Amino acid sequence: MATSRKPRGTTVERVVDELRERIQRGEFAAGQRLIETDLTTELNVSRGPLREAFGRLAAEGLVTMEPNRGALVRRLTRRDIEELYDVRRVLEGEAAAVAARRIDEGDHRARLEAALEENARFRETVDLTSYLEHNEEFHNLIMRIAGNELLTDLVGRFRRQALGIQLRNLVTAASSKARVSVSDSVDEHEQVAKAILAGDAELAERLMREHVRHTGASLAETQKP
C-alpha cells in the first residue's frame, strides 16, 4: 500500500519560517554559526531541506554562507543598516504616496482608521513585543493599500533583515528610553496615517521617508562601522 509523503517544499518552508523567527527574536546571535547536526535534530529534518532553507535565508539577507563554515547569522554593520534604510525610505515613501491616492478605494479608509486607533494605545504602554507586531502590521497595511505586491515583498525583505536588531535594542534599552523610542514612532505613524487619510500624497511620502530615516539612524548608531 502506497503511503503519502510530505512535500519537500513544505518541510523547507517550515524550517525557513522557524529559523527566520528565531533569528529575528535574537535566539541566534549575529555572527553565530548555525550547526547542521544540532538543527537537523532540533527541527527533525535531514540535511537536504536544512541546506535549502539556509540558501533561502541567505537570499533574504539573514544569513551568510562561508566556505568550510557553513551558514552564519548575518552581522549587520552600521553601513549595512544605513544602506538598508536608504532603500526602504525611497520604497516606503512611494508606497505612502500611492496609498494616499488610493485611500478611498474599497475598505482602505476603514482599515487605516482602525490601525490609527490601535496605534494610539501604545502611547500608554511599552509592551515591546506587541508594539513591534503592530509596527510591522502598520507598515504592511500601507503596502497593501498601495497594491503593489513586488514592492511589498521587497520592503518585507529589507525590514526582516533589521528586525532582530530593532527588537534587541528595545529590549535592552532602559524602560524610559524604550518608552521614548516607541512614543516617537507612534507620533510618526499618526502623522503618516493622517496624511494618507487626507489624500495628501506629497505629504504622506515626505513623512514616511522621514519616519524611516529616523528609525534607520537610531539603529545605525548602535552598530559598529
UniProtKB/TrEMBL annotation:
InterPro entries linked: GntR_C, TF_FadR/GntR_C, Tscrpt_reg_HTH_GntR, WH-like_DNA-bd_sf, WH_DNA-bd_sf
Protein name per Swiss-Prot or TrEMBL: DNA-binding GntR family transcriptional regulator
GO molecular function: DNA binding; DNA-binding transcription factor activity
Tree of life domain: Bacteria
Ranges for domain HTH gntR-type: 9-76
Alphabetical keyword list: DNA-binding, Transcription, Transcription regulation
SMART domains, A to Z: FCD, HTH_GNTR
Pfam families per record: FCD (PF07729), GntR (PF00392)
Gene3D superfamilies, per database record: GntR ligand-binding domain-like, Winged helix-like DNA-binding domain superfamily/Winged helix DNA-binding domain
